[in-house]
Amino acid sequence: MAAPPELIDDATAEIFLRLPPDDPACLVRAALVCKRWRRILSDPAFPRRYREFHRTPPLLGFLRNRSDRDPSPQFVSTADASPFSSPEFDCKQWWTLDSRHGRVLFRCVEPDGLVVWDPITGDKHYIIPQLGNEKIDLAAAVLCAADGCNHLDCHSGPFLVVFVSADFHGLVTWASVYSSETGAWSHTDAYLDFPCCMDPVPCLLAGDALYFMAFFGMCLVKYDLALQDLSIIDMPKEHDCLMTTAMISEGGGLGLASIDGYSLLLWSRQAVTDGSEDWVHHRVIDLKTVLPIRGLRTIAHLAGVTEGANTIFVNTYVGIFAIELSSGQVRKVGEREHYTIVPYMSFYTPGMSDNRQTSWSTSILYFHECGVWCLDQRSMNQVIVVPSDYIVYLMHRSRKAPDNYAALIEILLVHYFVVSVTDNLKLLSLITGMRSPPPPTSIVRASLVSWSCVLSEPAPSGVAAARGTAPYLQAGPINHPWLGFLRYRHPTTWMLTMSFSPTDTVVVEGDALYVYAWTWDECCWVQRKAVDLKALLPVHAISFSPLIFYLPQGTDAVGVSTDAGVFVVELTSVQVRRKLLEREELLKEEGGGTSSTNLLVHLSYCEL
Amino acid sequence: MAAPESGDGNNGAARMVTLISSDNTRFEVEAAAASLSQTLQLTILDGGGGGGDGIPLPNVDSATLSKVLEYCIKHAPAAANGGAPNATAVDRAELERFDNEFVNIDQSVLYSLIMAAHNLEIEGLQSLVAKKVADMIKGKSPMEIRRTLGFPDPTPEEQAEMNAHMLEYGWAYE
Question: How close is the nearest chain A Cα to the Cα of B172, in Å?
């Protein structure tokens, strides 16, 4: 066969524009045909043209919350091949609440919270629910926050989470809005003066309002995004409340779909004579004729709707079917589901997940019955002061340490998580069961340039054995920006090191004490001093590895704890200044409930 | 677009224009049909293409041009009705049947048609042929697409690059 005439790029792009958006593998495979095709498809102008050509984001799949085989939500692709895998979260359970504008909202349990997941980039944005409400039943929505957005490609932009829940103690229903831009919940909440039992199904965005199902489908709770208020909309009197879902009506306003027997009934909310609004029943679809099932034996169930394309998902004993209302097309999209599904719609073009961008708005959260902490999401280097004994640290990313931006989450003093902020909160290490000196009661700043260097270059030469496991931060003293503890997991022992300047670190390893300085030029630790503690300390035999306890601010001395007591060692002169207290006293103090760090802080100020 | 009726003031019989292919074949068609091409429309509005002049189309050979004109003649009446708002369902079905048969041709002709439709800016034809090629490559692997469209076999370097990309996009081949 003769070689075809070369098509100019623009004509080739015309072909690519017509590849189906609901099968993203088509574009990806086309991109592999030859270099020229790849170039055309990877031109940033092409995805834009493609989205504008197709206008409505296609259905790429749906999230099912639970099945017989999988207790966790699974992403079920409606295309033959899917770039997405099911999400995983570091919590005991998670549940899909809602999906819109290219994002999926999950509720997490233990620890409790909300997570916004972007399937395309894999980004996860953790959100702390407002204090005291993390455990109650709720409905929530995620939506794009950009003004005048066409929602074709806004999945990585700012978003809002609207949270509606009932307070059965205070007998109210309230709504609150979280903004990813400010990283905070709104101060002005909307209330209804009675508690609504919210249904755990996705809500509907129609116009400027969100509609949540409540009381098992008996009514809709409307949240007006512009007016920021809540109201109740009753259902049509004759509908079957267990089989109803809100949808966009054919006229573009609020509608309902309900199933009665083998009929799918469609309603729209319209103005009636006295100026009020009521439900008008406008279409009936006979499921027995529409569904490609011979002899529909059991009643079908509504499984969900899509907002833009107005597709209704109907669950039957042979599987789940998507009925497109405008074209009348019906196709089977999955196996039978037990729960409501959450459709996911977005454009996916080649190269989209390649330029995965760091989500700088990622927040770190920690939940506990005593309190909630979060990190400043904008500056990424401050811990919001939290009224608790437990702490969350975030390390600052330095100019020279590339892409290694980590946070420490400490829970109950025995569980430590080092998570990477740059890599979707990937857990770098989990350290459990280690009893450590309790942290001071509050931390204002824990962000150290040197920490991030240490993380990216984990081992000073003296602690090379620790390479491979991430060090983690321990508490630093109050209001001291450059002081903190740094722990390495040693094969046999735990070492406590301390940083006493932005760039210096003291390490005790075995019976020796080392001082390291960080050199920016070479980006490595250089050993400045080595002290043999066995020879220095007036102790006959050191039976356990000494630990550095404290390094007082403004001095060059460190407190070294041994089994014979705590000594203060001056680093400049390499002399033992004095013995602070006996080990028994220390243990007694610890056991007696006084924070040993506080004790040492106290000692350092009083006695050194 | 409505077919231009003005120009030479000939309102009785349909105005004819002459198009000349790259291999010097002359095609005489109604101005309304030729005006489906945005490129030709301006010339025709200016009164060009009439009489013995003819409009030369150096990028389109006679085989392709006759095919293009077949499409234009069939679609001109609907286009003259401004996108056929009052066309009957029968008319629309007939056009659809014509379109389906029209693109049922060898891929090399399809390619020539894409280029001609692109150069002459005939939106409907461009869309029809692009859709046809898209349907041909839909669901196929990169190698199958190459074979379908008559691309030469990949060089070892190209093959290595394809393999590397296939690894990267493994999900698209499952």
Answer: 5
